[in-house]
Design a protein that fits this description.
Blueprint: H1 6-14, E1 15-18, E2 23-27, E3 30-33, H2 39-48, E4 58-60, H3 70-74, H4 83-99, E5 102-103, H5 114-121, E6 129-132, E7 146-149, H6 152-161, E8 163-167, E9 170-177, H7 186-197, E10 205-210, H8 212-215, H9 219-227, E11 236-238, H10 243-249, H11 258-268, E12 281-286, E13 293-295, E14 303-305, H12 319-332, E15 347-350, H13 358-368, E16 379-382, H14 387-395, H15 398-405, E17 408-409, E18 430-433, E19 448-451, H16 454-463, H17 469-481
Parallel strand pairs: 3-4, 3-6, 4-5, 6-7, 9-10, 9-12, 10-11, 15-16, 15-18, 16-17, 18-19
Antiparallel strand pairs: 1-2, 2-8, 13-14
The structure holds 3-isopropylmalic acid and iron/sulfur cluster (SF4).
Pathway: Amino-acid biosynthesis; L-leucine biosynthesis; L-leucine from 3-methyl-2-oxobutanoate: step 2/4
Protein name: 3-isopropylmalate dehydratase large subunit
Family: Belongs to the aconitase/IPM isomerase family. LeuC type 1 subfamily.
Length: about 475
């Protein structure tokens, strides 16, 4: 018998029952909750007179609707101006209190984007099944956890039963081999993968990311990659356990205690695909060939290297592709064959569950140090993913680097990743954004999103247009060493 993939192992370890038609019931170890997709779930419990099955399996924090300025946050929930946003956040607080679920509220230092908070707390552990009413739950797969987004009715079901109806996915392996060039990051890897396989390339699959370039990434980088598996169509992104995984988790509040640690680690070590495991599909990328990426269109697959240009729709063989490109260029206000480095920007957003962790902020700060945001940029903002990331960044002096350069240093939340709070793009504005989605209107009605890495976003803020961060990096490193 062939060996098992990591996904196969996680699946079979959580399988409660499987029917002949493939419908299965799996056990859920951890549910993360935020204010957008939980209200009806709690309401459903209430109406049915049910209680959560396992309180300690749940952890909640508000993120999508929270304001990100100190002034608004000083008032707590009352600082939320939008009435719908306020109701959602208040309802999460009330529900967690009423049902006894642990929550990190708006001004708790541990509050933040749910996908930053879970791993940071050690609430996401190898071998777990992790769900959340949020598509970017794929992020947690970086820890060899089977993690994916679910809908609100499923949130209720998991609260009530700790189980979920599921269907087994197929196995895909994306191998990224070799060394990344200087200035090329995890974000560029995942954008390049999506550029290659497309936004439907992973549909129906659990993608395991493997290869030496993935092994070389920190946990922050691995989370960035898995975060965007859903943008490649796969609900699940996974990376096998190694020393990097284990070292990241040591001592985290929800991680196993010192007495249980060795046994847990011994167990976790099995959470890798067997050497002879068979994948339904394998895609290989050469890390050395990946450039810093910039999206030019209205789908994450509409992406190219920074040295490239906006494609010419007329040059596309497929008519549907052609029409899609025409529409995207019209919305984005870009011309065919325009150089990527000629795209001028109005705003810069460094944040989101893709790129708001400490390493992301360090990379951006390294580029921004001693520089000034271009006058033509109306707003450049840095939004840490959690209160603890913010604290760490401040301890390292990163906030001062950003503020001196002219960036706004904000409070944690989803912020300008999506237009659900006060941070939005205006119509027609171009934004260099470290987030994961560039759909029409995603960051505000008529807003134009360009997905990039934190270093590329910082470099764009300083130049006022996209620049190849590799040219800056070369000159910077010699300055720093002097
Ligand atoms: C609001 C939430 C349900 C949504 C998601 O599922 O991903 C959001 O986080 C997003 O990024 O679009
Ligand atoms: S940061 Fe963006 S992508 Fe992530 S959960 Fe929030 S809205 Fe969704």
């Amino acid at each position: 018998m062939a060996g098992q993939t990591l996904y196969d192992k996680l699946w079979s370890q959580h399988l409660v029952k499987e029917r002949d038609d493939g419908t299965a019931l799996i056990y859920i170890d951890r549910q993360l909750l935020h204010e957008v997709t939980s209200p009806q779930a709690f309401e459903g419990l209430r109406l049915a007179g049910r209680k959560p099955w396992r309180l300690d399996a749940n952890l909640a924090t508000p993120d999508h609707n929270v304001p990100t300025t100190v002034i608004e946050r000083a008032e707590g929930n009352a600082g939320i101006k939008d009435p719908v946003s306020l109701i959602q956040v208040q309802t999460l607080d009330d529900n967690c209190e009423a049902f006894g679920i642990e929550e990190f509220r708006i001004n708790d230092a541990r509050q933040g984007i749910v996908h930053v908070v879970g791993p940071e707390q050690g609430a996401t552990l190898p071998g777990m099944t992790v769900v959340c009413g949020d598509s970017h739950t794929a992020t947690h797969g970086a820890f060899a956890a089977l993690a994916h987004g679910i809908g609100t009715s499923e949130v209720e079901h998991v609260l009530a039963t700790q189980c979920l109806l599921a269907q087994k996915m197929k196995n895909m392996q994306v191998r990224v081999e070799g060394k990344l060039g200087t200035g090329v990051t995890a974000k560029d890897i995942v954008l390049a993968i999506i550029g290659r396989i497309g936004t439907a390339g992973g549909t129906g699959y659990a993608i395991e990311f493997a290869g030496s370039a993935i092994r070389d990434l920190s946990m922050e980088g691995r989370m960035t990659v898995c975060n965007m598996a859903i943008e490649a169509g796969a609900r699940v992104g996974l990376i096998g356990v190694d020393d990097t995984t284990i070292e990241y988790l040591r001592g985290r509040p929800f991680a196993p205690s010192a007495e249980q640690w060795d046994a847990a680690v011994a167990d976790w070590r099995h959470l890798v695909s067997d050497d002879d495991a068979v994948f339904d599909k394998v895609v290989t990328l050469d890390a050395a060939a990946i450039e810093p990426q910039v999206s030019w269109g209205t789908s994450p697959e509409m992406v190219t290297g920074v040295s490239g240009e906006v494609p010419d729709p007329a040059a596309q063989a497929d008519e549907t592709v052609q029409r899609g490109y025409v529409r995207a260029l019209e919305y984005m206000g870009l011309a065919p064959k325009q150089k990527i480095t000629d795209i001028r920007l109005d705003k810069v957003f460094i944040g989101s569950c893709t790129n708001s962790r400490i390493e992301d902020l360090r990379e951006a700060a390294r580029v921004a140090r001693g520089k000034k945001v271009a006058d033509s940029i109306k707003l450049a903002m840095v939004v840490p993913g959690s209160g603890l990331v913010k604290r760490q960044a401040e301890a390292e002096g990163l906030d001062r680097i950003f503020v001196e350069a002219g960036f706004e240093w904000r409070e944690p939340g989803c912020s300008m990743c999506l237009a659900m709070n006060a941070d939005k793009l205006g119509a027609g504005e171009h934004c260099a954004s470290t987030s994961n989605r560039n759909f029409e209107g995603r960051q505000g009605y008529g807003g134009r999103t360009h997905l990039v890495s934190p270093a590329m976003a910082a470099a764009a803020a300083i130049a006022g247009h996209f620049v190849d961060v590799r040219s800056i990096d070369d000159s910077q490193s010699s300055v720093q060493e002097a």
